[in-house]
Structure formats: C-alpha cells, structure tokens
Design brief:
There is one protein chain. The chain has about 375 residues and is α/β, with parallel strands linked by helices. It folds into 2 domains: about 140 residues, Enolase-like, N-terminal domain (Enolase-like, domain 1), CATH 3.30.390.10; about 220 residues, Enolase-like C-terminal domain (TIM Barrel, Alpha-Beta Barrel), CATH 3.20.20. It is built from 12 helices and 15 strands. The strands form 4 sheets. The chain has a 7-stranded parallel sheet with strand order 5-6-7-8-9-10-11, covered by helices on one side. Strand 8, helix 8 and strand 9 form a beta-alpha-beta unit. It starts with 20 loop residues before the first strand and ends with a strand. The model has no long low-confidence stretch (mean pLDDT about 95). Bound molecules: magnesium ion. Magnesium ion binds next to loops.
Length: about 375
C-alpha cells in the first residue's frame, strides 16, 4: 500500500442492481458567450450523458470530455467507445462498486469515461436509497462557496468590466484565464481596480520554464495561485518553477488521479490542487484526493468543465467534502447557457454561496422537452 492511500468510502461496498440498460444521450447547448482559454475557444457545450434505468429509477452521469482533444486527450467519442466496449461490459448485478473499480483498473487512464459511468451509478444508488448524492458519499451538508472563471478578454478594460460584474454578483473569488501576451497587464488592471479581491490566474499550460522571470512578475499582485502555468502533462518542471515563484502553483490538467496529486504535492510542484472529479475517474477518487490534500494541509478546490446542470449538480454535492477548502468553479447556470437541461438551475444565494440540491441523487430534474430539443444523438446499450 502506497503512503498516499486513503481509506475506502462506504459507498464502495454498495451492490450494483439489475440495470435494464444504458443510454448515451449527446446534447449540444449553445453558450451565451464564447469561452476562450490560452489554446482554444468553445461556442457551445457538447456533452455525452449516460442514462441508467433500473426498476423505474432513472439516473444520470455527465461526461466532461469535449468533442475535441484540445483540453484533454479524451473526447466524447473516445469516452463512448471506452464505456461501451470496456467499462459497461464489466458491470454485473451483485458486484460492489469497489469490485467494479478493481475491474476498471485494467483500463489505463480514461478517467472521464470512468467518471461518467461512476457518477450515473452513484446517482442510481443514492436514488435507490432516497438520499441526496452527498449523503450517499458520506458527506455532511454544508454551504458551498462559489467562484467564477473568466475567459480571455479582448482588452484589460474588458476584463476589468467582467470582473466588476462578477464581484457585484457576489462570487468568492475570480479566476482569469491568461496566456502569453495577455497576462501581466490584464492581471494588474484587475488588481488595481480590486486591491483585496481573491484573484487567481489560469494559464492552461501556455508557458515554459524559460518564462519563469515573466511569471515571477505576477508575485507582486498577491494572487491566490497561478494554475497550470506549464505543460498539461508535466509535474516535475512545475516543481522547478515553484521554487522561483512566491505565488503558489495550482495543478489542474496534470492531475488525473490520487497518485498524480501525491506526486505533485510531494515534489513541491503544487501548493494547491484543482480536483476535477470528471477527469480523475469520478467522485470516489475526487473525495480521496481532497482527503489526501487536507491531511497534508494542501488547499484544494473543485474545478469546472462548463458542465450542463447534471455535471454542475454533481460538483456541488462533491464540495460538501470539507477537503474542498477553497471556492470552486461552480458558477451560476445563467452565466453560461440561455437554457439548461435541468431544473432548478444553479443560482447564487446570499453571500456567494450555492445550495446543495436537496432531493434524492443529484437532486435536479432533467427536463424531457429541453433534453429532446438539445439532443443530437442517442444510442442504447443493453
Ligand atoms: Mg484550469
């Protein structure tokens, strides 16, 4: 047993029932505004949804992969392939979730595919027991702090305006996307306008170690962290960069598992971890990473992938885990979509908090009419 092992969750002992079938439902939701990061721009959210049906219960999981491999190597197509041909065939009635994870360990990587099916199974378990998803995970109810992520803007002033709007809305922290040439001047403009704002930047891997001096100039701005400055696949170079920066480095894309998080923390490559449950294989692995981080005094938070209301609800339940000590990326639905496929949408309560949905499972209802209208493909697996 490696020293980073974290105790199993109770839900891993729960048994899989007689699931009648699995449906893939691919939806396309137009964004209100295009969302740009250092290397890509998206104008809509295309998501692969996993729908399970058992004894009249319908459960949902959302795959966070994009149709393209510009953010991660997994895509909606690879996820459908891996689920259909490798993950779903492992599912047998009577086996526990932990046993299923044991079988899935044969499939290397593909955490987004695993998470989509794991999320749907946990939603099913929770609905079967009449429990909200966070209780199914053994997590206490608490208020979830909300932060917001602002895409790359055309000018520093446009960014300041977007930040002002987010501050007015009550968000606990603002993250701004940066890239070479759209970094220091932009961050400085926001910092000058909001001297005490909890502010951070996310480079999505746009820099290299030779940019260390440039990145060190950000130290003067008192940022909470700089997220993923170097390559999406790197951990070690980040440990070298961290020694040259006062600003804590947060790793996001590099963290595909608990083992990656442990490597990053122990190498000194990250002082903060962005845990995306939809990338690390699901909720169980995400809770374990958060607990690993908490045990070592490393702050962690829940990142977003511009999820529809299904994935958004999952991320909110997950943040009931106290190891998520910093505000996450789960922002209000209305910032992203003119209409979502679930009800109720995510809204910000007084003080910039988000309520955890109270009903069984994910606690939000998938709206059939909207789902039909926004669906672009369906397929059923027996
Ligand atoms: Mg990020």
């Amino acid at each position: 047993m490696g020293e980073y092992e974290v105790a199993a969750l109770e839900c891993e002992g729960e048994k899989i029932g007689d699931i009648e079938h699995l449906d893939f439902v691919t939806v396309r939701l137009p964004f209100l505004h295009p969302f740009s990061i250092s290397k890509a721009t998206w104008t809509c959210k295309e998501a692969l949804l996993v729908r399970l049906e058992e004894g009249g219960i319908v459960a949902w999981g959302e795959c966070v992969a994009d149709p393209d491999p510009y953010y991660a190597y997994e895509t909606t197509s690879t996820c459908a392939h891996v689920i259909r041909d490798f993950l779903w065939p492992c599912v047998e009635p009577g086996m526990t979730l932990g046993e299923l994870f044991g079988r899935w360990a044969l499939v290397r990587g593909h955490g987004m595919a695993k998470a989509a099916l794991e999320n749907a199974l946990l939603d099913l378990f929770a609905k079967r027991r009449g429990l909200p998803l966070h209780e199914e995970l053994g997590l206490p109810r608490r208020r979830v702090m909300s932060g917001v992520s602002l895409g790359i803007q055309d000018s520093p002033q446009a960014l300041v305006d977007a930040a002002a709007e987010a501050v007015d809305s009550g968000y606990h922290r603002i993250k701004m996307k940066v890239k070479r040439g759209k970094d220091l001047e932009y961050a400085r403009a926001v910092r000058e306008r909001f001297p005490s704002l909890k502010l951070m930047v996310d480079a999505n891997g746009d820099y290299s170690l030779t940019d260390a001096e440039r990145l060190a100039e950000l130290d003067e701005l008192g940022l909470m962290m700089i997220e993923q400055p170097l390559s999406y696949s790197d951990i070690y170079q980040h440990s070298k960069l961290q020694r040259k920066l006062r600003t804590p480095i947060c790793l996001d894309e590099s963290i595909l598992s608990l083992a990656d998080a442990a490597a990053a923390v122990e190498l000194g490559a990250a002082r903060v971890i962005n845990i995306k449950q939809g990338r690390v294989g699901g909720l169980v692995e995400a809770v374990k990473i958060a607990r690993y981080c908490a045990a070592r005094g490393v702050p962690a938070w829940s990142g977003g992938m511009d999820e529809t209301g299904i994935g958004r609800a999952v991320n909110i339940h997950l943040q009931a885990e106290p190891g998520f000590s910093l505000p996450g990326d789960t922002a209000e639905t209305k910032r992203y979509f003119p209409e979502d496929i679930v009800s109720p949408p995510v809204t910000l309560a007084e003080g910039g908090f988000i309520e955890i949905p109270g009903g069984p499972g994910i606690g939000v209802e998938v709206l059939p009419e909207r789902l039909d209208r926004l669906t672009i493909a369906r397929a059923r697996l027996k």
